[in-house]
Design a protein that fits this description.
4 helices; 185 residues; mainly alpha
């Protein structure tokens, strides 16, 4: 059980690190959209229609990906939080088992001092403790496997949109935004 908690601690550290990296990438993508929009505005002001269209196209395409990335980041955050909570519960449970084992040892020693017949009772207590520890270890392993399966399921990507429809909407959005530059003072 202690090994399971140590493995979970390592997993949570790795998840936390991966989440931080994903969050930084998401914020970088947001800044990149703003940069493309600024490039489009500058190109539009300079009369470079092709450059303005290209920059605005890049901004819109990236802008469309941001909600998907944001959703995945949100799911990763929820999963990380669940893992951290699980680690906390299992750490508390491990400490409880350690105390239980310590109390069982104390009871066994007391039984040896008080009654020579306690040999049989002590053996039963130790077997019960081992049984409880084995049961807990099995439950923890099952939980770990379930969470691993959930992680694998959450990492699947949605299907692609139809190219013609997206191209049409992209062109409309580019035109609309470029016209906004012409209308602004």
């Amino acid at each position: 059980m202690q090994q399971s908690v140590q493995d979970l601690e390592q997993t949570v550290r790795a998840q936390r690190s991966a989440y931080r990296q994903a969050e930084l990438k998401y914020k970088a993508k947001q800044r990149q959209v703003e940069s493309y929009e600024k490039q489009a505005a500058i190109a539009q002001q300079q009369g470079d229609k092709a450059g303005a269209r290209l920059a605005m196209t890049q901004a819109i395409r990236l802008e469309k990906l941001l909600p998907q990335i944001g959703d995945r980041l949100h799911h990763a955050q929820e999963f990380l939080q669940a893992s951290e909570e699980r680690l906390q519960r299992e750490t508390i449970q491990l400490e409880a088992y350690r105390l239980d084992v310590e109390h069982l040892k104390d009871m066994a020693e007391l039984g040896n001092v008080l009654d020579p017949m306690s040999q049989l009772s002590r053996q039963q207590n130790l077997e019960t403790a081992r049984s409880h520890l084995d049961d807990a270890r099995d439950r923890l392993e099952l939980q770990r496997l379930e969470e691993q399966a959930l992680t694998e399921l959450s990492q699947t990507q949605p299907g692609d949109m139809e190219a013609d429809s997206e191209h049409y909407h992209l062109n409309e959005e580019v035109e609309r935004r470029l016209q906004q530059f012409d209308q602004s003072p």
